[in-house]
Amino acid sequence: MISLDFEIHWGLRDQMGTGGPYRQNLLGVREAVPRMLEMFAEFEVAATWATVGFLFAASRDELERSSPALKPSYVDRALSPYAEPLRLGEEDDPFHFAPSLIEQVRSTPRQELETHTFSHYYTLAPGQSAAEFAADLRSAREIAARRGVEFRSIVFPRNQHNPAYDPMLLDAGLLCYRGLPRAHPYRGDSAAQRLVRLGDAYVDVAGEHTTPWAAVPQESGLCNVPGSFFLRPFVPRLRHADGLRLRRMARAIRGAALRREIVHLWWHPHNFGRHTDENLAFLRRLLEVFAQYRESHGMRSMGMTGAALAALRGEGR
Which superkingdom (predicted)? Predict the structure, then answer.
């Protein structure tokens, strides 16, 4: 399983501007997305594109008209994106608008367009409320509906899942979310845990992170399809360790195929915005591993919504 947090600058705006060293990654999304879609089509692979609602807007005017009256009242005001300076639309502001890319995703077979909230909303940030999240979710659904998109899955920004909001997700027709890996190093953000997570990307420190189908449905009524691995982008100084990284994830794919479980890779399109050739070459090698086990073990490729529906029907068990 593959999911992408499609956000461009909206997911980074509280950490960096558009003019710094990461600018090329953000601009490179315009090349990376079509090339990823081409590869997914080649391998007949499904992917979930969890998309910030702002990106659906064709213009600053449409974004403002689509925004909820009730906005997040974060204690840390820097978290709110509503004061972000914007240009007129996608042509002159490729960092904040992406309807043309969204249409490419929508028109590619086996791709699911899902939600990453309307405003890259932080459900655990101090100050925000359930009513504000409900308003954000409503705006996300409405702007997507104007493009013919209906959400069934959500990926929470910064993986901030607030269980108190599960009932409103169900009421909105959502089926599932992407949770964190169940292993301890992924359940916190201490320096030690971050170090273990980095090592775990290259060697097996915390297990294969596969999920049994029976573990997907939750008591709340939602389904949780946890992430297994963040597909870290190519780093030139670490290129000699890429063989370890490939072997690590290939073994997890093999384990999922043998046990008939789920392995879930995720990343951001902007991670592939620089060193695009190298990142796509690595992705191709992973998809070749998947194709091998699809042929030998009947391994299937599904998006998050497809997997949730299959789990609820008991098909994967």
Answer: Bacteria
Distance CA 133, CA 138 (A): 9
Q: Which domain holds residue 88?
A: 2-187+213-230+263-273+298-313
Task: Please write the tens of the pLDDT for every residue from 74-85.
Answer: 999 999 999 999
Report the relative pairing of strands 265-267 and 2-6 from DSSP bridges. parallel
Q: Give the total number of structural domains in the chain.
A: 1
Which tokens in the block code for residue 163? 């269980």
Is the CB of residue 24 less than 8 Å from the CB of residue 274?
yes
Closest of 54, 56, 65 to residue 13, by C-alpha: 54
- Read off the CATH number of the domain in which 181 is found: 3.20.20
**What's 233's DSSP letter?**
P
Q: CA-based angle 301:295:37, to the nearest 5?
A: 40
Rg (CA), the chain: 19
Claim: this prediction has a pTM higher than 0.90:
yes
3 state SS of 20: coil
